[in-house]
Amino acid sequence: MTDDHGPLTEGYDRTPQHSSHHIPKIMMMGLRRCGKSSICQVMFHNMPPLDTLYIESTSSPSTTVFSSFIDFAVVELPGQTNAVDPGNEELERLFTESGALIYVIDSQDEYINSLSNLHSIITRAVEVNPKINIEVFIHKVDGLSEDFRLDAQRDITQRVTDELLDDGLLNVPLSFHLTSIFDHSVYEAFSRVVQKQIPQLATLENLLNVVCQHSGIEKAFLFDIKSKIFVATDSSPMDVATYEICTDFIDITVDMDSLYTIDHSQTPALKAADTAFGNELDGTDPTFNKSKPIGSTTRLNNGLILYLQQMVKGLALVCLMRKESMPKIALVEYNIEFFRNALEQLRLLTV
Length: 351
Ligand SMILES: Nc1nc2c(ncn2[C@@H]2O[C@H](COP(=O)(O)OP(=O)(O)OP(=O)(O)O)[C@@H](O)[C@H]2O)c(=O)[nH]1
Prior knowledge:
Layout: E1 2-3, E2 6-7, E3 25-30, H1 36-44, E4 62-67, E5 71-76, H2 89-97, E6 98-106, H3 112-128, E7 133-139, H4 146-166, E8 174-178, H5 185-195, H6 201-215, E9 217-224, E10 230-233, H7 240-259, H8 268-276, E11 295-299, E12 305-310, E13 315-321, H9 329-350
Parallel strand pairs: 3-5, 3-6, 6-7, 7-8
Antiparallel strand pairs: 1-2, 4-5, 9-10, 9-13, 11-12, 12-13
The structure holds guanosine-5'-triphosphate.
Residues 30, 32-38, 52-53, 55, 57-58, 78-79, 139-140, 142-143, 180-182 line the site of guanosine-5'-triphosphate (GTP).
């Protein structure tokens, strides 16, 4: 499977009939060995972080099609310092087609070269596409102490913004994220990048706020089950521990559910039911291969309830609820059913 940028990475492409030409793109750039392929492999192909040690250097652009609430393609470019050579039309076309450019900086290495490379890339990218979001991943922060991480972030932010100001570039949409593949930081950062690409984000957040208010829910996330990117959350404050518990709960639920999966492809009636639930996209993935959406509930040590319910197209609603909500679970599920219908309608508007 290929597109004109090079081989399509097949593992995450749940919609092979889609060409990546017509879907929004997120570019990934950065110097060699900064960790671009590792991020893609860990996030979209479930590679264990330690196995990234054996990844070979990327020599040509590769694309991973991400199919969730919206479909988009992550285009990873090989590490290079001369990326913005004048007349690089292919790159300019990519800048034009992309909603975001993730630039990965290896924080464990000397980053001066990265910063000058980033500066020339930003200058060219915003000239071609002023709306492109520049997302800087200050990566591999697992090797830095807490203080050092913040120092590195402050230093990099200062240098990048100063240089842009010197060039008169005042309103570049620029964000900085501390990331590592060895914890949840890279998922959170990628989630923030993806959320900015979803035109219906405000509506999704409003819907989640309404569900939380009327159901005794403390915090709710709408997750893409496979990548664990959260496409939206309600407006209550979020902490990393809550996010981690929710993603672990997705893993446990999917693993437990897979233990008892029936092979529906063998039975025409169940296959038809899969189709009705929109689960037929990837027959090899047990998560999306059943007539009933996955769901599960558990109680935490602190008395809070974790509740997971699969919504549309590989998305799951994961909520933290107070235990007082449990007697009213029928009402909660009634509200969640409304949320599911609203999601379905929103999604139909996007396709
Ligand atoms: N400590 C640490 N190492 C990482 C992290 N992410 C990636 N690495 C390591 O960094 C090295 C380079 O990673 P790659 O993903 O191949 O880097 P790349 O940017 O794709 O490199 P090119 O393909 O040459 O452009 C590998 O040994 C990874 O294990 C991280 O978050 N923390």
